[in-house]
Amino acid sequence: HLNIWRNAYKGIRYINDFLAKMEESTIADADKKSLMGEAYFFRAWLYANLIQRYGGVPIIKTVYGLGEEYNATRATFDECVAFILEDLKFAKELLPTYDKALKGRANVDIAMALEARLTLYAASDLFNDETDPAPANPLTKGKYSKDKWTRALNANKAFLEKCGSHYSLPAKYSDFWTNPASTEIIWAKYYNN
Questions:
Q1: pTM score, whole prediction
Q2: Phi and psi at residue 69, in whole multiples of 5°?
């Protein structure tokens, strides 16, 4: 399903509402921390999916109520990447580590993996074209910068150094599809009977 705009912004609204209400929540600090980490991660994940399909999109950080003026405009591609990286920074500070997270729930490894993937996309020729250093439409492309490759290298290196020991390619290709404990899986949605 390539047209994710409506569902993504619906999710972003729920997340923004959740984050606003968590400030006043009386739940235990450890639970609050983990849940807020997941919220920041999921908002980053939704925006990462949006910019891969549409380029720069409106960055919404608040919850609009009925009758409020809604006039958000599209941010540039580079502004969206910076916003997503900021959310991932918060997520990494709040999420549990790999060994303390529940299976299928967001953890630091997953946030680092998304950061690694996002920075590779942002550095690629599709969004960081050396032949078009100052694109006429900054919504669809970022300004060219060699530093984006350094950022991608650092994010991917950090993931491999911190999390690489948790993952490996299995001996059999089918393991990925048939083994819920496959060492290749970084993040999965688990179902039960």
A1: 0.93
A2: -75, 125
